[in-house]
Amino acid sequence: MHITAIKGFKDILPDETAVWRRVETVAREVVGRFGFQEIRVPIMEKTALFARSIGETTDIVEKEMYTFADRNGESLTLRPEGTASVLRAFVEHALHSQQPVCKLFTLGPMFRHERPQKGRLRQFHQLSVEALGADQPELDAELMAMAAMVLDELGLRASLEINSLGCPRCRPAFNRALLAFLENKREALCDDCQRRRLKNPLRVLDCKGSACQAHYRQAPSILDHLCPDCARHFERVRDCLAAMAIPFKVNHFMVRGLDYYTRTTFELLTDTLGAQGAVGAGGRYDGLIKQLGGPELPGIGFALGLERLVLMLGEREAEPAPSLSGLFVAALGEQARGVGIGLAHRLRGQGVKVTTDYAGASLKSQMKQAGRQGCRYVLILGDEELAKGEGLLRDMASREQESFPLSAELAVLARRVRTAGE
RNA sequence: GUGGGCGUAGCUCAGUUGGUCAGAGCGUCGGGUUGUGGCCCCGAAGGUCGUGAGUUCGAGCCUCAUCGCUCACCCCA
Q1: Chain A window 375-414, residues with Cβ within 7 A of nucleic strand B
Q2: Can you tell me whether residue A23 is helix, strand or coil?
Q3: Would you say the C-beta of A313 is within 7 Å of strand B?
């Protein structure tokens, strides 16, 4: 075993796929309940799409993208998030012309070249949800409620924090106020904040350093600088959340790592994932569709981190073993195996799960395999049985066995195996 | 990119100040039952102790390098 998986890329082994399926199933079901339709988009796009939408100066674009030159020299990138691709498809296929609000979700792998740690991989999976074409605050609240409902139906808890980042009308004033505030604190700030101050002042507020945090306590709040429209929008969002009895906390320090956000942003946080607090996050991006060459339509979306959900789920008790099901054909000898493989094939054709041994193992060994596989029945085919045109059908749960004529209607056996364990 | 921790059997891990130290449990395979699973009993296979140098009479253990994993910083789902 010399070749291993790429750093930060993980195999999801058979033991784990059941949990994953559960997460995916619940996610699809809940989101569908809110009227979202699935869209599947490529995992690779032209690099410019991400650079333009996520923001040239974000960490993601600056240093975390898997970018390659295609054979013809074109720069391609493995998607670091889902929104850009979905919006590209939305614009490309003019989906806005089909209905007033286009509600889409997609589910799949994303790629970011970061240093892996708990709850953070280079290939990770997200449920990405977008609602395009409406700017009503009710929609914002509903999306948060939907994210919370996915968690809830998985039996998980997370706290909701919300903020408003304003719009192109009110943001500049806040930026000026913030810069002015930072100007006379300049000496006291950490190196990172020095950098952020010049690059993207908003991000300063997100600093985890306690020294910086102390200073920012007096920093101007974006919420005090919202224009009337944004302020009204945000207030309505809060009212709607209250109406749905969704608990939330306003965190005016919350800043997102992608440049395209406007107005409402939110995060679903947990303290059970090590340093990775966010299981889900999103926000409104009202200028983005136009920026990508589409119509001037508002939009809002969020993503849930699937491995983070799986991780949270894994911290609780494992699910009980599934009940016995299916049939194992235990054939003894070459002739019997020939009969067995034919039988197995016909039974599978009737919807029965059938497994068998290929190595000519002893009956004992085959019984063991059947037991390990959780088979409900074993059909034993040996010389004695074959001579009589029968098989010996053993019920692994009751340990009772009876001879079963091979000439009988297979449907009878199929039905019996299929309904066992239900 | 920066820092900490860890690399011994397929898995989880013991290995005392360097001197039978190559081990246990689980798993796998076989036997106990010449054709009957789970439980139990017995046995077996399986490891260049991540890799490479060095120190030493002697290194799983010490030193250095290197690779990998992991956690954290940064950032994010």
Answers
A1: 378, 380, 382-385, 392, 394, 396-397, 399, 401
A2: helix
A3: no
Residue A58 CB closer than 7 angstroms to strand B?
A: yes
Angle at A164 between CA A158 and CA A168, to 5 degrees: 145
Helix A47-54 and helix A83-92: axis angle, to 10°? 110
Instruction: Identify nearest nucleotide to residue A395 by CA to C1′ distance.
Output: B37
**Rounded-to-integer distance, Cα A238 and Cα A386, Å:** 74
φ, ψ of residue A142 to 5 degrees: the values are -65, -40
Residues counted in chain A:
422
Q: Which of A223, A227, A226, A236 is closest to A141 using CA atoms?
A: A236
Helices A137-153/A14-33 angle, 10° precision: 150
Residue range A14-170+226-314 forms a domain whose CATH class is alpha beta
Task: Check whether residue A323 has its CB closer than 7 Å to nucleic acid strand B.
Answer: no
Global confidence as pTM: 0.91
Between the CA of A394 and the C1' of B2, what is the distance in angstroms?
63
From A51, A137, A142, A45, select the one nearest A103 (Cα to Cα).
A142
Considering only residues 135-174 of protein chain A, which place a Cβ less than 7 A from any atom of strand B? none
Nucleotide nearest to A128 (CA to C1'): B77
pLDDT tens-digit series, residues A171-223: 888 888 888 888 777 777 776 677 777 777 777 777 666 667 777 777 888 99
Neighbours of A268 (CB within 10 A): 25
- Gap from A394 CA to B19 C1', Å: 59
Asked if the Cβ of residue A325 lies within 7 A of any atom of strand B, the reply is: no
**Nucleotides in B strand less than 7 A from protein CB:** 1-3, 28-31, 33-38, 68-77
Task: Specify the CATH superfamily of domain A327-419.
Answer: Anticodon-binding domain (3.40.50.800)
Question: Could you tell me the residue ranges of all domains in chain A?
Answer: 14-170+226-314, 327-419
| Sheet strands side by side (includes A354-356) | A354-356, A327-331, A377-381, A390-395, A401-405
Distances (CA, A) of A183 to A20, A206, A223, A241: 49, 17, 20, 37
pLDDT, tens digit, 9 for 90 and up, residues A217-270? 778 889 999 999 999 999 999 999 999 999 999 998 888 777 889 999 999 999
Read off the tokens for A166: 């304003």
